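User: I'm writing a short report section on ligand binding and want a predicted complex to refer to. Could you take this sequence and fructose -6-phosphate and write out the structure as C-alpha cells? A short remark afterwards would be nice.
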Amino acid sequence: MKRNAPIPTSEIFTRLERIPTTIYPDAQAAAARVAGIIAATIRENNSRGKNTVLGLATGHTPIDVYRELIRLHREDGLDLSKCITFNLDEYYPMPPDSIQSYVRWMKENLFDHVNIPAANIHIPDGSLPEDQVEAFCRDYEAKIKAAGGIDIQILGIGGTGHIGFNEPGSSPDSVTRLITLDSATRRGAASDFFGEANVPRRAITMGVGTILKARRIFCLAFGEHKASVVRKAVEGPLTDAVVASFLQNHPQAEVVVDVAAAGALTRVATPWVLGEIEWTDYNEHRAVIWLSNKLNKSLLKLDASDYDENHLASLLRKSESADVINRRVYGRLFATIADNGQLVSGKRILCFSPHPDDDVISMGGTLSHLVRRGNEVHVAYMTSGNIAVFDDYALQMMDFWQELNRASGLDGPKAQAFDKKVREFLSAKQPGQVDIEELQEVKGRLRRSEAVAACRWMGIPKSRAHFLDLPFYKTGEVRKRPIGPEDIDIVYKLLRDVRPHWIFVAGELSDPHGTHRLCAEAIFAALKRCKPEEMPEIVWLYRGAWQEWDIDLIDLAVPLSHSELTHKIFGIFKHQSQKDKALFPGPYDDREFWQRAEARNTDTAARYNRLGLPEYYGMEAFVRWEP
Ligand code: F6R
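Assistant: Sure. The C-alpha cells for the complex follow:
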C-alpha cells in the first residue's frame, strides 16, 4: 500500500490555517526556497544601491538556509556586503567565544563564510554586566529602526511556541529585553550544554513587537517534534500561551515546514473533515482507523451511520457496505502482526543503531526473536555516543581500570600518564566544556562495552557487533558535521561485507539531536551505491527512543509476551551509563529509556487491541521503506 497521500493545497483545505503555510518534502527544499527569496531581495536591493536588513535566528532549524546562502555567495556570486543583520537572541550570561554562544554559532554557520562587513552584524551581547543590559536593549531597538527596519525576518519555533526567546506570556508589543527561559526550553537546550544544569536561566531576546515590525517573516519548522506546536500556532487561537500565534496578525508572515512538521495540521492529519479527498487505499486505511479511535469502537463494529455522521459518507458510498470496508482494514492490520509468519529464518540481518542503545531500546525483542529463529544477526553501532556519558560515571570506571591495572601489574608509565591526564582534566572541567580526546575515548569505549553486553544478552556474538564510529559525529560536541563521503564509504563497506537480506534503519523523520537523521542519510546514500545484487531484500524502518509509529503506518508489528518484554528491559539495563538518568532526556520526558520502551511497547499492543485486534502484552513496530 503506497502511503504517500498528496497534501491538498486548495482553499477548502487550508481554511483553518490562519497563517499562510507552505509544506515542502524536506527541510533542504524549504531552505532552498527561503534562501532563494532572501538572495533575490539582496540582489534587487544591491542593484538599487540599497541595504538589505535581515533578522536572523540560530538553533537547528535555519542551518540549511545559511548553507544555501553560503553556496549562493561562493558559486553564484551573491554579494552580501550591503546586508545589515540583527540576531534574535543570545543566552545570558554568555561569553561570545563559548561553544554555546550564538555569536560563535553565527560565525561558524554563516558570517565566516560570506562577505557581510563585521560592522553590519548585530547580536545581543550576553557578556554585559546586568546593569548595562537594559540600555543595550534600548540601543538594539534604535539600531534596527535606524537601519530602516527589518526586511526579512527568519524565525524558528520552540516547543513552548516561543519565537526568539519570547516564552509564553510575552505580549505582542514586547521589545528587546532580558527574559527568563521556560524549563522546557532549558531541557530542550540541555544537549547543547552537556546537561540541563549548565543551561543559562535567562536570555536577551528581541521582543514580539520587534519581530512583528519586520516587513516579511518566514517562520521555519522541521521535523515531527514540531508538528503539534505548528498546529497550535497556525490553527489555534491567537494567544500569548503560544507566542508564535501572534504571527497570525502579520500581513506577510509565512510558516514554512517540511512534511513531518506539517503532520498535525488538519489538512494533513484528517483532510476528510475539510473536504472531498481521493479515497486511495491508504486514505481509507487511516480514515477508518481514525474513526474507530474517535468513536472508541472496534473496527468490526463500525456501522454505516458512523461513516455518514463523521465525514466519511463518500468513502462509504464508494464501497459496498461499512462491513466490507471494516473487514478490509481489519485484514490489513491483522496481516502486519508478525505471529502470522512474517519473521524470516536462516537469513542475514543487519540492524543499524545510531547510538549504542537504540537497537535494544527500539527493537530488542525483535532482535532476540530473529536470533531464536536461526538468523545471523549483526548490529552496526554508527556513533560512539560518548557525549552522553556523565563525568562521574567515567571517573568511577577509571577507578576500576586503575585498580585492575594495579592488581595485574599493568600500571606502567603509559597507563599512569593517561590516567593522570584524564583525572586532571576532570577536576578542572568547566560546565559545558568539550572533553579532551582521552576522555572522549574512555566514554566511547564504555558505551562500546555496554553494547557488547546487550548484544550478548540478545544472543548476538561480539564478532557481529560492528562499531563504525562514523566521522561526522566525532566533533566532541552535540553539533555535528554534515554526512560526507567517508561516512558513506564505511556504511557501504559493511553492507558489502555482511550482505544482509534484511536491514533495519532508525528511520524517523526527526529526533531531538539530528544524529538519527544523519545516520539514516548515510545509510540511504550507501544503498544508492549498492549494485542490484548487493541490495537487501527489505529495508525496515524503526523509530528511536522517543515515539512509536502511528498504527496506520505500521507494516510489521512484532508481539512480545510479558517475559519477552522483561528480557528486553534487562538488555536495556546493560547500558549502565544511561541508567537512572539520561544526560539528554529531551525536553518533555524525564523517564528512563527502559520505562519509555516498556510504555511504548505495551501502548502499541493496546492500540491494536482497542481496534479489535488480538490482545498482546507488547509490540515493536516497523515500517517498510519504499524507495
Ligand atoms: C534561536 C531562537 C529560538 C529557536 C527555537 C527553535 O535564535 O530564537 O526561537 O528558533 O527555539 O530552535 P531549533 O531550531 O533548535 O529547534
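A remark for your report: The longest helix spans residues 437-458. The mean pLDDT is 94.
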